[in-house]
Amino acid sequence: MNRYKIEIELLTEAIFGSGHSVPGSVDLEIVYDEYGFPFMKAKTFKGNLREIMKKTIHLLGYKEYKHVLKSLLGEKNNGVNTWKNLRFSDCRLTENIRNILKYAVKAEEIEPSEIKEALTEIRSFTSIEDDGSYKKGTLRHFRVIKKGLMFVVDMECERELSDEELAVLAVSLRSLRHIGTMRTRGKGEVNCSLLLLDKGVYRDITDYYIDKLMEGVKSNA
Question: Structural domain of residue 20, as residue ranges?
Answer without folding.
Answer: 2-220
